[in-house]
Structure formats: structure tokens, C-alpha cells
Amino acid sequence: MLYNLLYPLHDQVSFFNLFQYITFRTVYALVTSLVLCWLLGPLFIRWLKAHQGKGQPIRNDGPQTHLIKQGTPTMGGVLILLSLTIATLLWADLTNGFVWLALLVTLGYGVIGWLDDYLKIIRRDPKGLAGRWKLILQCMIGGIAAAGLMLMTDPIVDIPFFNSQWDMGWFYPVFVLFVLVGTSNAVNLTDGLDGLAVAPTFMVASALAVVVYLAGHAKFSAYLMIPFVPGAGELAVFCGAVVGGCLGFLWYNTYPAQVFMGDVGALALGGALGFVACAVHQQFLLAIAGGLFVLEAVSVMVQVASFKMTGKRVFRMAPIHHHYELKGWAEPKVIVRFWIISILLALVALSTLKIR
Prior knowledge:
This protein has one domain. About 65% of the residues lie in helices and about 0% in strands. It is built from 14 helices and 2 strands. A two-stranded antiparallel ribbon has the order 1-2. The protein is globular, with a radius of gyration of 20 Å. The two termini are about 40 Å apart.
């Protein structure tokens, strides 16, 4: 909004020339989102406690140390979504189609997560919305985004470490849908400990902010031999808003958490990461940067497959962060070590831009 309102006046007021720079607007989108989330946090948490009663129901079959979290309010992801949406609308170029599609996916998946959280609280049942309905709704919203990307970009996927792109043709929307739904649910599976999902999310979003800025710049993309996507650089502003919202929320979600993010946040943030990566054809780079999310999702699939085929479990409990808890690792130790892994993976992902 500020770009659309103020930059046209740069001939009269030279200061407004700053608004043409994506880097400037990305930084201030981050700051805006962070400050909003941080300032609104205490009021929002008090409101949640007043209206949720016993808070999020805790699984009885999980680590017994989690039972002390009973009564902690959930749906804190609403705070992230509110902050990042306001920041994006303030600092992004609102004539950019990528920005609107990113908000569509993020807020659409957030609504699905909100419904899931609401049912958990009302029914006092950790299962919430039935999995099939959650998947159907995710595919509906993801399908709209995939169709939009088909109209705005080429149906290609960049291959890290190699100077090549895979032209997927009409299969591309299916692949985009798979990435969106898969990333959304992978982040949701990771959100099992205080701050475990939100910190890796802003790490991956930070890496993607760099990638989309480069992909939207003709000279940088040509130099790095990555697909050039006109207009995609504006998604850096969106990524900055995501980073700021996550940082602000982590203030209250760090161990011991004052509020849980809930599915409303986890599904939305996963969808946001998936969309941004798809917009610039960097789905495989996302798998590297978000390797922790991949590991969490794979651990669940391996556990389920092993139990159905052999009757035996590979892990003490899945997702894998619970496995280490049951091995005796303290929750903060699991969280911080997984954060370290996420930082390293984000750096490896960025390094692939030069290793070609």
C-alpha cells in the first residue's frame, strides 16, 4: 500500500524514492510484523485464556512431561497471520499477483487450521477436523494457487547443484499441489514442542527471501543460472513479514510456552513456505532448507508403514522429536538441537545457488 501510494510521489519528495527498493520494504515489513506480534501478544493471550477454558487438549499417549502444559491456550497462530498480513499489505506492491496468491494460500490454510483447532477445543479431542476433510480443503485452495502459477510462470522445476530445469508440462500443477499440501502438513507435524516449528519456519523464510529476490532480478538470476521470474522479487517483502511474525510470536512461544501456535499457524506457515518456493521453481531447494520438516514427516510415514507391515515401531514415538524426548532428552535440548540443524540446512540450501 505504501509503495503504491508514496512511490509515485518520489519526483516531488525524494525520500519516497526509497520505496522502489524491495530490500528496504522487506526490512520494514519484518520490523512491522515483529512489533505488531510482540505488542499484541499479551492482550491476545489473555483473550485466548478467557475464551478457551482448559486450552488445547493434550494427548494422553504422548510424553508424560507434556501433561503439565494442560491449560495452555492455543490458536496463537492467528497472531502471526494478523501481523504478517498487515505488514504485507502495508509494504508490498499490491498490484503484484504473486503477493495476493501468497496471502490466499496462507490465510486459506489458516482458516482450515482454525477450524481444526476450534473442533479440538469444543470437543476436547486432540484429533480435531477429520484428516480427509482437511486434505480436501487444502487441495481446493492449493489447486487455485497452482492454476494461478501456471498462468504466471513456466511449468519448470529448478534442479539444485546442476544448471538445469525440469519441464513438467501439465503435470506441474499436480506437483505444486503436492508441495503445498506436503509442506503445510510437515510444518504441522513439527509443531509438537515449544518453539520447535516457528523458529525453523523463519529460518527457511529468511533463506527463501534471498532466493526470491535473486530470482526476480534479471542480472542476478542470469549470473547464478536460476530461473528468472519477473515480479517474484516482491515475495521477499512477504517473506520478511513471515520472518517478523514468527520472531514476534517466538517471544511468547519459547519454552515454556505461554501460547501454542496451533494448526491455524502451522498449516498456514507451511503453505506460505511451499507457495513461495513454487513461485520461483525452487521446490527442491525448499526440501533442503526445510529438511527438518521433511525429517519429521518421513519419521511419521516410516513409523506408520513399519507398524502396519511388521507390527513393530521404528521409533519410540513419532514424529521424531518425541522419540528423543522418550530417550531422555530434555525438551529444551531437543528444540535447540533441531534449531541448529535448521540453520545449517538453510545455509546449505543457499550455497546451492553457487554450486552449479
